[in-house]
Amino acid sequence: MSETILVTGGAGYIGSHACKALAESGYTPVTYDNFVTGWHDAVQFGPLEEGDLRDPDRLAAVLTRHQPVAVMHFAALSDVGAASRDPGLYWDNNVIGSLRLVEAMAAAGVENLVFSSTCATYGDQDGVMLDESCAQYPMNAYGASKRAVEDLIRNFAAAPGVVLNHVFFRYFNVAGADPDARVGEFHRPETHLIPLALDAVRGRRDKLTIFGQDYPTPDGTCVRDYVHVSDLIAAHILGLEHLLNGGASDVFNLGTGRGFSVREVVETVARVTGEPVPAVDGPRREGDCAALVSGSVKAAEKLGWKADHSTLEQMIATAWAWHQRPGYER
Ligand code: UDP
């Protein structure tokens, strides 16, 4: 019988890619999702349990029914702008939800956890290439909520009588879509750069606004390190198997080490799609860091991870194929 993995947020962008990869690797992914930002048609690769992380009875029942050997925890709100406007929502959903999950895992004796963290926990560090030993100074409530969850998982793991082996992945900017276009990125409202640029190309929105032109970066726009969702999920399978094989708890950046400015992304979208991107300059977005680029090869060295699909062109091309898929528009 295949081993079961509980995937919180399995109906979302990254979680649905995780379920596909888990099923392809011989696991049974059980999606746990409250459908606030998830989509029913993204759940294709294993059973669905609808529920909210902040519902302890529901969580306990699901863990008892499915007896997972591990949890992959993706479920979270992740819009930096919204987090700055409504921090309480982020602390409630992301932190309290994760607390309930970890409590339920401890009560049910589920000992392995792969947690979706973020480079936003580092904050702006004056152009430093970020590695896992950097201090964390989140600049917004999204990053702060993720750092708090890292702390709470570590606290539980250190408590007497609790076994909570964990891997944290601090994602840089996740982009692209499943090369088979069975799942992809779809948020409503959409806030992320590449899908917004593709929407502008397709005429689904009038224009893209470039947030801020006076950052201390080569062209004045923000610099980010983009990583393909398929590569990101490949790391999660490696991290899961590291834990299932008795490996120690650890933390890994997932980025390529190469930064691209907003303008470079917009130019590459135009090149890959063959269409101009209608774009205008606008003010800075609250909570944005100037640059976030990974300076770590730890996941490659310790987990054998390779980011094979993460050129900007590959990420935009797979996202573009997904955007043009019949039925994309839900
Ligand atoms: N961005 C932009 N216009 C948009 C959306 C995003 O200029 O309509 C910029 C944003 O300021 C950031 C980069 O694109 O510098 C990536 O933003 P995104 O929201 O995709 O990811 P984040 O870095 O916030 O996780």
Q: Unreliable segments (pLDDT under 50, ≥5 consecutive)?
A: none
Please give the share of residues in helix. Answer: 25-40%
CATH fold-level label of the largest domain: Rossmann fold
CATH class of the largest domain: Alpha Beta
- Second-tier CATH architecture of the largest domain: 3-Layer(aba) Sandwich
Query: How many β-strands, per DSSP?
Result: 14
Kindly, what is the distance between the CA atoms of the first and last residues, rounded to a whole number of angstroms?
35 Å
Bound molecules: uridine-5'-diphosphate
Q: Quickly give the structural class.
A: alpha/beta
Principal-axes geometry comes out as globular
Report the C-alpha radius of gyration, rounded.
Answer: 19 Å
Our estimate of the beta-strand percent is 15-25%
Number of helices: 10
Quick recap of the structure?
38% of the residues lie in helices and 17% in strands. It contains ten helices and 14 strands.
Please characterize this protein's 3D structure.
- There is one protein chain.
- This protein is α/β, with parallel strands linked by helices.
- The protein has two domains: 4-174 and 227-254, NAD(P)-binding Rossmann-like Domain (Rossmann fold), CATH 3.40.50.720; 193-224 and 257-323, UDP-galactose 4-epimerase, domain 1.
- The protein is built from ten helices and 14 strands.
- The strands form four sheets. Strands 3-2-1-4-5-6-11 form a seven-stranded parallel beta sheet, with helices on both faces. Strands 12-9-14 form a three-stranded mixed beta sheet. Strands 7-10 form a two-stranded parallel ribbon.
- The longest helix has 22 residues, at 87-108.
- The structure holds uridine-5'-diphosphate (UDP).
- Uridine-5'-diphosphate binds next to helix 6 and strand 8.
